[in-house]
Write a structure and sequence with these properties.
The structure holds 2 protein chains of 2 kinds. By secondary structure, chain A is mainly alpha-helical. Chain A has a single domain (3-88), classed as Helix Hairpins (Orthogonal Bundle). Chain A has helices at 3-23, 27-52, 58-88. Chain B is mostly helical. Helices cover 70% and strands 3% of the residues of chain B. Chain B is built from 27 helices and 4 strands. Chain B has helices at residues 5-12, 30-33, 36-52, 61-84, 115-138, 145-164, 168-186, 193-223, 230-238, 244-261, 270-273, 279-287, 292-300, 302-307, 309-331, 336-356, 360-388, 399-402, 404-418, 424-441, 458-487, 502-517, 530-534, 547-568, 582-588, 593-666, 674-694, and strands at residues 92-101, 105-113, 447-448, 451-452. In chain B, the strands form 2 sheets. Chain B has a two-stranded antiparallel sheet with strand order 1-2. In chain B, strands 3-4 form a two-stranded antiparallel sheet. In chain B, a hairpin with a 3-residue loop joins strand 1 (92-101) and strand 2 (105-113). In chain B, helix 5 runs antiparallel to helix 12 and helix 10 (244-261) runs parallel beside helix 15 (309-331). The chains are: A mainly alpha, B mainly alpha. Chain A binds chain B through residues 18, 21-22, 30, 93-94, 96-101, and chain B through 667-668, 670-675, 678-679, 682.
Chain lengths: 101, 695
């Protein structure tokens, strides 16, 4: 298998994630975009692991860690979003900007 | 085996000095191995007495007695070890590096242990012990009792430091410490003006000699190739590496120091005035510490002095002048302590004379015997003064009746000083006279392999002999004058004197016994005796007895005693010596030497030089100082206004203002919009990525 395909796919996924994080107003969608970026990293790790034929499979192990961290992160993030919605009746990130100067 | 302190220090201190740690066959002997205890004890005692003495039941005196007691026992042990050792001249060094200087040179600190040191240790420690015991009674109730004992023990410690010195720098340190302690003790009752004047006189007079001593030390230091180490200097001098002129100059400069410390003409004037101190302190000064320092120093450096005939002759001639002058002065004194003081000067001159003719062993033998009986005589005088509350012999008389113990011990001391067989002074005085006579009459005796080794010229030796016999006569005369006037006849004072307490008579009796017996170790018939214990200059030599010479000196002493007894037994109202007319006046006025110093040195300096210096001080120096102060103030004001207020405060304030202005703008970057932060974050990441990959 060609590593370039994998990397290109990972880069594409990462870019979609960046776009989502920067351009979306909905906080749930921003969180989902972060998941996309993390998964792009996972793809890179697994791809390199296969490419180098690493006996220790460290790339795969790291991607498992990242999946675990991502799950925890989404748990915390959704809880915050839920609380914001309860108080402000909105989850638009550009309207939640009280923490400034 | 327990490692000795010095061994330990030497091991820790890295490079040892040239002569460090040669324990030789004496190793394993506990006295030798821990000889440093003798040196340490007085200093520990000084610190203890000074720190906690006032809180102790006996005011600190018990610490001094304990310390000096142990030190005495230890030093006697050292002497015995040295005496029974097979190689008596062998020297043990225990030292550690004190401080390094220059190119890999270093000065050691420690002990040079040989017979000479051991004998001096015994003399200093034992007499100091006696003085400590005596003083507990004599100084009882004094307002500075504890301070007295502090200084007394520091005094003994300083002398031990000097005696033990393996190098000239340590010796110099002990030398100066001894000087300052004598100052403190002479001026102990400083509330009276005369006493503090006497202390200052002692310090200034000895200082004149000390200047010579210090220069002498450095002359030898440079001449011997940058070393203070005594043994090295001696070796190099004996190897002829030091030119005769330099050597003579160094020796004469050192002798100037000795003449100041050991009160020789023309610097002896301080010693009679040093009577101002407490009597037991005088006893210590005259017997063990201070005045014997000069004799010891020359004995320690004897091989160097021996090389220079000029130096030896100078020492001998000065000594003859001093012994006669001071013996004559002792005849006309009324103050009992002054008689003894002049007698000390005269006896010290005896020792110098012996050194001058090359009889180092005889000199140290006389130092040793003299220490016992002179300590005894001073303590006896103290006992008398304690009883009649006067120093004046006119206020005494008939004391035999009232103070039998003082009488008998004083009698022993008098006979020892007069040199009557078999008292201590007889043996040592006779050895000096015999040696002087032998050197004078046997030409070439001082020559070893054609080199003048050990000596002055023949005529000087004969001069010493003649002066010595005459002084023996005068000594016997003034002592019998003192003795008869004080102890016989009727009491002239007030009240009823009584015998001193046991703490005073105890030391008197011990010293009395020593005055009788101490000389026996140096009998001329015992070839293994005193002379071989100390071996000054490495000479294992005891002079042979000469019956004719003994007869002459005994005749001189006996006739002196008889004459004194004849003149004073009837207790004449007018001193018979007044018949001497102008000579008596000359003696009473101390040869006008003090007046001469006053008129020729002190007045011109005080009235002219000092006045001129005062003017210079007021106008030039004070002007400079005031000017400097004014300039400094002006500068300070300028600096405050310009530098502090403007520059520094400006910088501080400027930073504050700058930070405020900057942050006023920059804070708008913090919008609260999370997505803008994220965007900036990504921009930053990209910038970093470019930075790391491209550069």
């Amino acid at each position: 298998m060609n590593l370039a395909w994998l990397l290109t796919f990972g880069a594409f996924l990462f870019s979609v994630g960046i776009y989502g994080v920067l351009a979306r107003k909905n906080a749930v969608l921003v969180l989902m975009s972060i998941e996309l970026m993390l998964n792009a990293v996972n793809i890179n790790l697994v791809g390199f692991n296969a490419w180098f034929a690493d006996q220790t499979a460290s790339g795969q192990i790291f991607s498992l860690f990242i999946i675990a961290v991502a799950a925890a992160e989404v748990g915390v993030g959704l809880a915050i979003v839920l609380l914001i919605f309860r108080r402000r009746k909105t989850i638009a990130v550009d309207e939640v900007d009280l923490l400034k100067w | 085996m327990v490692t000795s302190l010095f061994q330990f220090l030497a091991a820790e201190g890295g490079e040892a000095t040239e002569h460090a740690i040669e324990f030789g066959h004496k190793a394993g002997n506990v006295f030798v191995e821990h000889a440093w205890i003798v040196l340490a004890l007085p200093f520990i005692a000084t610190i203890l007495i000074g720190a906690i003495g006032k809180r102790l039941p006996k005011g600190g005196s018990e610490v001094g007695i304990l310390a000096m007691g142990v030190a005495s026992v230890w030093s006697v042990g050292l002497l015995i070890t040295n005496f029974i050792g097979s190689a008596r001249v062998e020297t043990t060094y225990q030292s550690f590096d004190w401080f390094p200087f220059g190119n890999g040179l270093s000065v050691g600190f420690g002990l040079q242990l040989d017979g000479l040191t051991a004998v001096m240790f015994v003399v200093v420690c034992t007499i100091s012990l006696m003085v400590n015991i005596y003083s507990t009674s004599y100084m009882h109730g004094d307002s500075r009792f504890t301070w007295y004992f502090t200084v007394l023990n520091l005094f003994s410690g300083s002398m031990l430091l000097l005696v033990a010195a393996p190098n000239l720098l340590q010796m110099l340190m002990g030398w100066e410490l001894v000087g300052i302690c004598s100052y403190l003790l002479i001026g102990f009752w400083w509330e009276k003006r005369e006493n503090s004047d006497a202390a200052i006189k002692a310090v200034i007079t000895t200082r004149i000699g000390d200047v010579g001593f210090i220069i002498g030390v450095f002359v030898l230091f440079v001449a011997a190739g940058n070393t203070f180490d005594i043994q090295t200097i001696i070796e190099r001098a004996e190897a002829g590496e030091i030119s005769m002129f330099t050597l003579t100059a160094g020796c004469l400069l050192l002798f100037a120091g000795a003449a100041g410390k050991s009160a020789q003409f023309p610097l002896y004037v301080w010693l009679p005035d040093a009577m101002a101190g407490p009597t037991p302190a005088s006893s210590l000064i005259h017997a063990a510490t201070m005045v014997t320092a000069g004799i010891f120093m020359i004995a320690r450096l004897f091989p160097i002095f021996e090389i220079s005939e000029v130096a030896m002759n100078t020492i001998a001639i000065i000594a003859v002048i001093t012994m006669l002058m001071s013996a004559l002065l002792a005849m006309v004194q009324e103050d009992i302590k002054r008689v003894l003081a002049y007698s000390t000067i005269s006896q010290l001159a005896y020792m110098f004379a012996a050194l001058g003719v090359g009889a180092g062993n005889a000199a140290i033998f006389h130092l040793y015997t003299h220490a016992w009986f002179k300590a005894l005589l001073f303590q006896g005088a103290g006992s008398l003064i304690h009883a009649v509350h006067s120093n004046n012999m006119g206020d005494m008389g008939g004391m035999k009746k009232y103070m039998p113990k003082t009488y008998w011990t004083f009698a022993a001391g008098t006979l020892a000083l007069a040199g009557i067989f078999p008292f201590a002074g007889f043996w040592s005085k006779d050895e000096i006279l015999t040696e002087a006579f032998n050197f004078g009459t046997e030409p070439g005796r001082g020559l070893v392999e054609g080199v003048n080794h050990g000596a002055s010229s023949d005529w000087v030796a004969l001069l010493v002999y003649g002066g010595g016999v005459l002084t023996a006569f005068l000594t016997a005369f003034y002592m019998s004058r003192l003795f008869v006037r004080v102890f016989h006849g009727e009491f002239h004072g007030h009240g009823k004197p009584h015998e001193s307490p046991k703490l005073i008579t105890g030391p008197l009796m011990f010293l009395g016994i020593m005055s009788v017996l101490a000389g026996l170790v140096g009998m001329p018939w015992w070839k293994e005796g005193f002379g071989t214990w100390i071996a000054v200059g490495g000479e294992l030599h005891v002079a042979d007895a000469n019956v004719v010479l003994i007869g002459i000196s005994l005749l001189a002493a006996g006739s002196g005693l008889a004459l004194g007894n004849k003149l004073y037994a009837s207790h004449p109202a007018v001193d018979p010596l007044k018949k001497l007319g102008w000579f008596h006046t000359l003696l009473v006025n101390k040869y006008y030497l003090d007046d001469f110093y006053m008129a020729a040195i002190i007045r011109p300096i005080r009235d002219r030089v000092s006045k001129a210096m005062y003017w210079v001080n007021n106008n030039v120096l004070d002007g400079a100082v005031n000017g400097a102060a004014a300039a400094t103030r002006a500068l300070g004001r300028g600096v405050y206004k310009q530098v502090d207020q403007r520059l520094i405060d400006g910088a501080v304030n400027g930073m504050g203002i700058g930070a405020k202005a900057t942050s006023g703008r920059v804070r708008f970057l913090q919008t609260g919009n999370v997505q803008r932060y994220a965007a900036l974050l990504f921009v930053g990441v990209i910038l970093l990525a470019v930075l790391f990959t491209r550069f």
